[in-house]
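URGENT: need a sanity check before tomorrow's submission.

F., can you look over the Dolichol-phosphate mannosyltransferase record below? I want to be sure the sequence and structure line up before it goes out.
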Amino acid sequence: MSQTPDRGPAGNDTSPAIVAIPTYNERDNIETTVAAALAGCDRIDILIVDDSSPDGTGEIADALAAAEPRVHVLHRAEKQGLGAAYLAAFDWATRHGYRTVVEMDADGSHDPADLPRLLAALDDGADVAIGSRYIPGGAVRNWALHRLALSRGAGVFTRAMLGLRVKDVTAGYRAYRLDGLHKLQLDTVNSVGYCFQIDLTWRAVKAGFDIREVPIVFTERRAGASKMSGAITVEALWNVSRWGLAHRARQLKSALRRGRIEG
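Structure tokens as predicted:
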């Protein structure tokens, strides 16, 4: 792991900021993604979180960190899922004095040119800035129709079950204030796959956070295989269903209690 440089606040309370990039078998993408992120925003550092990729991604990450002081690497012993990787990144960022963390995919689907706009939303007072594909100005490029339908359907189902107004609840390109993140009881988060994004969105809404969606254009990965699987979809469906049923039960209980009081 490279050593963290001595970095102080850069004139606002969301700096310094770090971009967390989880990797597993991303050797064909990681160099290009890191280079583009560094070039696209001069106020960020990068933390590559590698889950012992058998394709050598971790070794490439170490070489990048050795050549560039803004790049850091966190090696993990085994593949434990997206959620665990981000939780480890949040902890690392906190221990190393960062105030903001950005989640970004390694595969090139997230445009680094959008980093300044995500950070600007936090500078303007937001607690969470979500790079949204499904608000005006947002779009998805090069996805198969079934993949787009799955994503759209998951969003509709999740918003209906949880009563959310966030349009892109599964978005993986987002920025958080770290002081806010630690109010979300992260030690109780056990979502493994992309449900992790729904989980944190739901927690942020319940905590009353200022959540702002910033339009982005999402482009299908440049190379390598998608990590999406049936197990990830089932996890999201199960968790959203049980969270939603519990939420609606609480609403019903509250309504009945108000009715008794008013009666």
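My own read: The CA atoms of residues 41 and 116 lie 6 Å apart. The domain at 17-262 is CATH 3.90.550.10 (Spore Coat Polysaccharide Biosynthesis Protein SpsA; Chain A). If you see anything odd, call me.
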